[in-house]
User: What shape does this take?
Amino acid sequence: MIRAIVIRPEPGCAATVAAARATGLEAHGFPLFAVLPRDWSPPAATDVDALLIGSANALRLGGAALEELHGLPVYAVGAATAEAAREAGFTVAETGSGGLQNLLDKIAAGTRLLRLAGEQRVPLTPPAGVPMIERVVYASEALPMPSALVDLLRQNTVVLLHSGEAATHFAGGCDRLGIARRVIAIAALAPRIAKAAGTGWASIATAETATDAALLALTRQLCQSSSETRG
Assistant: This one.
C-alpha cells in the first residue's frame, strides 16, 4: 500500500494521522514545524466588535491576553477552529468553509475586527466598512526532515500539505536532500498551497474543499491511483 505522510504541526498532525488510519490508509506523521507563542498585546475590547481567527493555534497559544477579549464573538475559518474557540470560552458567530477571505467577505459593514494570526499568514482584504486590526500571536518554526521520513520519501508516497509554508519548506527539503519529486504525490488543502509546492511531483491535486475530510478523501484517491500505476 502507498503510504500517506502528514507533516503539519502537532496537535493537528496526530489528529490527521488518526483520521487517515481510521479510513484504512497507512499513514505516518512527521511534524516539520514547531508552533510557538509570541508576545502580544490586545487592543481595548471596546475598540473591537469581533475576532477573526484562521487557526486553532491562535486560541491554544494566545495566552492570558485572550482573557481580555472574552465576550467578543469569533468568526472562525473552520470547524476545528470554531471548536477551539468554544473550548477557550468564546461564542462563535460564524464558521467558514471556503477559506478566511471568503468568511471575511460575509461580515457585515460596521464590524470592527481583530484578526489573531500567525507570523506567516495569508494576506486578507477586508470588505468596505470593515476595519481590521491584526495581532501576531504565534509562529511556526521549520524543523529538519528526520532520517525516517527521508527513507520513506525515497519510495512512492502521498504527502499531505496543509499550508503554503509547509509546501515551500517540504519542497525545499526534498531538493536539498536529493529526494526525487517524481515518486511523491502531493495532496494540497487549497490551490495556493499546491502552487507553493511547485512542479515535478508524481502528481499534485487539490482537495474539493479546504477541510481535513476532503483532503483525506483526495489522499485515498492518490494512494489508489499510485498503487495502480505501480502495479
Observations:
- The chain has two domains: 3-32+143-230, 35-140.
- Residues 212-230 form the longest helix (19 residues).
- Residues 37 and 163 are 18 Å apart (CA to CA).
- Helices lie at 12-22, 57-60, 79-87, 100-105, 147-153, 164-176, 191-197, 212-230.
